[in-house]
Amino acid sequence: MLIKDFVEKFDSQDQFSVLRNSYTQIDNAWKYKPDLSKLDGFKFNQVIISGLGGSAIGGELLVNFLRNELSVPVVVTRNYNLPPYANSKTLVIACSYSGNTEETISVFQNAIKRECPLIVLTTGGKIKSLADSSNVPVIILQDGFQPRFALGTSFFSLLKVFQTLKLASSQDNTVQSISSLWKTKSVEYTTENNTAYRIAESLIGFIPVIYSVSDFTNSVGYRLKCQFNENSKMHAFHNSFPEMNHNEIVGWENNPEGKLNPVVISILDKDYHPQIKKRFEIVLRNIIGKNWLIINLESEANEFKVRLLDLIYLCDWITFYAAILRGFDPSEIDFINKLKEKLSN
Questions:
Q1: Helices in the chain by DSSP H: which ranges?
Q2: Active-site residue 126, yes or no?
């Protein structure tokens, strides 16, 4: 079948068009001028980003994206409470696309009690009402998407906050480059037999095991793992170099027949430390590569930040095609919805 036939048959909410037009999310987010005047004069000694699922990955990506210029520690929390060290000098950014994520709402309330300066990123919901009643600045995200398909609005709105608060330098030129790249790639990834489609096709019957690099591309690896889970309805596993060299590597010594059919996806970058590159070479070629299929993903863009988002966009398309090629609707998340329903009761 042609791509359009798969899309018509399995893509009930037209995520194909959402992905194709994702660059417009970037443009809209970057035009937005957040009013953060309520935080004028604050001196932050750390930033905590609260979120779950598609609302959290923007924080993880931001830590990698700004890895060479952050002047204060930035951590992402995926729980109901702030860590004990959070105080009045800790900026808390609560990210909930729907506005009704119970863990993030709990963190918001916890931050109010501790008198932490707060910012909310959302489309509405309960957390916006709480923020409005507490005089907390709210950044309104572009509505109408499932959270994991809204990375263009959630990540770039978060980045705009950091730029506005001077926690990051001006990102204008870089953001323009990323938007232009996504627009160009949107044409490439929607043609027949494109790179993302071919990779997805090669994954049929396999379980992806994804390797990235800590503090560098781990956000890409984890994003890919989660997109396989939600979009493709596949188990996938993720770990990072060099940590996996000290434990998980031994697991490749033993794989009982029929128990696991892995394909290794390695997230590569030309700026990795020379020893990291050497570790990838040894592990992939001489250990794993002797018995298992390996797929290398690497961007050729000049700037690291652009390469990071180039990989993110490719991975989103891979997982979309991995869904429809296997007969699954990339929009459906039945088990998550059932869990939320039971929790609410």
A1: 3-10, 15-20, 22-31, 57-65, 102-113, 125-133, 151-164, 172-188, 195-202, 218-230, 274-280, 304-324, 334-344
A2: no
User: pLDDT tens digit string along 18-54?
Assistant: 999 999 999 999 999 999 999 998 899 999 999 999 8
Q: What is the pTM of this model?
A: 0.95
Catalytic residue among 230, 233, 238, 305: 230
Partners of 140 in the β-ladder: 122
Listed in order, the ranges of the chain carrying CATH 3.40.50.10490 are 18-176, 197-324
Q: What single-letter DSSP state applies at residue 286?
A: I
Q: Rounded to an integer, what distance in angstroms lies between the CA atom of residue 75 and that of residue 91? A: 11
**Architecture, CATH, for domain 18-176:** 3-Layer(aba) Sandwich (3.40)
Of 113, 166, 246, 290, catalytic:
246
Which CATH superfamily hosts domain 197-324? Glucose-6-phosphate isomerase like protein; domain 1 (3.40.50.10490)
Determine if residue 268 is left, alpha or beta; phi over 0 gives left, psi from -120 to 50 gives alpha, anything else beta: beta
Annotation marks residue 340 as catalytic: yes
Give the residue among 111, 52, 54, 109 at the shortest CA–CA distance from 87: 111
Interior/surface letters 307-316, b for 16+ CB within 10 angstroms, e for the rest:
bbbbbbbbbb
* Averaged pLDDT, 278-303: 91
Q: Give the pLDDT confidence score for residue 307 in this predicted structure.
A: 99
pLDDT for 255: 66
